[in-house]
Amino acid sequence: MPDDASLNQAIDAAVISAISISAYEALISIQQQHPELLTPGYREATWSEANYRDGFMKGLSKKISQAASRDAVFPSLREYLGIFLLPGFFDSPTFIQLDEKIRQLIYPKTEIGASGSSESASPEGIAILLLDVENLQLDEQTEEFLQTLSQYPITFKFAFAHWSSPSMHGQDSKFDRRNYELRHVPQGENSADIQMSTYGASILMRYANAKEVLVCSSDQGLLHLCNVLHSQGLTVYRVSKKGQVINILNKRTGETSTNVIQISLEKFLLQIKSLLKEENKRSAKQWLTLSKISQLYKQRFNLFLSEAVFRYSEAPNEIDFFINNPNHFAIHRLPDSPEVYVSLFNRTLSNNAIAPKNSHNSSFIEARDALEEALVKILDSLTVDSPGSSVALGMLANEFSDRYGHKVTDAIEKLQLKGNFREFLQSSRSFRLEQKNGAWQVALAND
Fold first, then answer.
1. How does pLDDT run along the chain (447 residues), one tens digit per residue?
2. CA-CA-CA-CA torsion for 414, 415, 421, 422, nearest 10 degrees?
3. Is the dihedral of CA 228, 234, 235, 240 positive or negative?
4. In the Cβ-directed half-sphere of 4, how many Cα atoms lie within 13 Å?
5. Which residues lie closer than 8 Å to 430 by C-beta, 6 or more apart?
6. Cα separation, 83 vs 65, whole angstroms
7. Residue 287 CB neighbours (<10 A)
């Protein structure tokens, strides 16, 4: 395998000069025929003048001379041209012709074998990554994992998207910093699929030393591209995502590898809280069983909650995870039941706080009987999965606060009733109170 020094020796001053001249001619052609492909700041520049020409060619020559190898010339060229030209230029016939001309300059015919392939110019081979950004997002850690599966270095990365879409705001600069070549596609359903398929099918024509292609999209429409590339003798990796799990299928061997996307503890907390809020709204229940939360997480993120807790937090298990985050969650165990209930933690609401959207009434209850009836309904909903069981007084009080936007003790005070919350419950025939392990529990009284 030739080292980088030997590869750089082949890019002599004459070749660099020829590349710069060809790129400059392409720029002039674009300004004359398709000025809309120039970035706004350079659209009106008089590129035919010597100072513009010399500045452009000098900058490009310096950029190319810094390339670590002949293969590295192409991303360097694209990066430099990207200063002056919009992403649409790289899909134009002008660029395709320029790309071919530069390949002929960098890989002379004397290095090309009888098959017409320039593979001998870079015998180590390369891998190419095609990404449908609108369908699948890859973070840097996942990219590193993909590189461990590839037998060849991932040398070129192409990101396809309608970059002017509001949903793509800021994404173009992010992928540009990660050395992706951005491919702009027209707005419309499956546009990225079509562009990826069209470009991907000609990979070997553009990169004769390509050995592997990673097709990154969960869209089934790109299966045909995978089959086409496989039929051309390339090793194809089909990369898709379901929830937090990335699946990589090697089309040659049929083997599948998986990689769990790593996220921060803060993001994991947001995932759980979002699930609880959605289920609270759907079921009108503020307390969910741990088993229900685990089921919801598996359905949404394709990962067992126990594994997620192990990966994203320092807690040894799910129960300890919720216990260790008291500012976000409250937990409760029913007596004589193995089930654990979890609720979003609700800080005491001030008198000026807005009641939750699912509150039954954001105003104070006006009568003792109405307060008693409200507490009966709440307690009934809390024990619907275990009729006749009891709950902690604090659990009942928190649920009242969630539903009515103020504390139950404030309601008692407003009604000018004697005693505290426990004494109010004890004075009613609707409730039965008892102490368990030093804590007060309340249940509905038997009729």
1. 334 333 344 467 778 878 888 888 889 888 888 889 999 888 888 888 878 888 898 899 888 888 877 778 888 888 899 999 998 888 888 888 888 788 777 765 434 333 333 333 344 789 999 999 888 888 888 898 899 899 999 999 999 988 888 878 888 888 888 889 888 887 777 778 888 888 888 888 888 889 999 999 988 888 888 988 988 899 999 999 888 888 999 998 888 888 888 888 888 998 999 899 999 888 888 888 898 999 999 888 888 898 889 888 988 889 889 988 888 888 887 666 677 889 888 643 333 333 333 334 445 678 888 888 889 888 887 776 667 778 888 888 877 877 777 788 888 888 888 889 989 999 988 898 888 766 788 888 875
2. 160
3. negative
4. 8
5. 372, 375, 376, 444, 445
6. 18
7. 24
Q: Which residue has the tokens 């190419």?
A: 128
Element (H, E) at 44: none
In one-letter notation, the amino acid at residue 147 is Q
Measured distance CA(439)–CA(268) in Å, rounded: 32
Q: Which amino acid belongs to residue 301? A: F
- The amino acid sitting at 429 is R
Nearest to 290 by CA among 252, 224, 341, 326: 341
Chain centroid to Cα 97, Å, comes to 36
The neighbour count for residue 175, using CB atoms within 10 Å, is 21
CA angle 432, 438, 441 (to 5 degrees): 25
What is the spatial distance between Cα 47 and Cα 138, in angstroms, rounded to a whole number? 38
Distance CA(288)–CA(273), nearest Å, equals 12
d(CA 375, CA 422): 12
Rounded Cα distance between 313 and 335, Å, is 29
- pTM of the predicted model over 0.70: no
Structure tokens at 188: 């419309």
Coil vs helix vs strand at 381: helix
Could you say which DSSP state residue 243 is in?
A: T
241 near 247, Cβ under 8 Å?
yes
Place of tokens 């003792």: 368
Q: Where are the beta strands (DSSP E) in 365-429?
A: 391-392
Q: What are phi and psi of 438, to 5 degrees?
A: 80, 0
Is residue 427 within 8 Å of 376, Cβ to Cβ?
no
Residue 76's SS3 state is helix
At 214, list the tokens: 């990673």
Spatial CB neighbours of 217, under 8 Å, sequence gap ≥ 6? 131, 132, 135, 136, 192, 193, 196, 239, 240
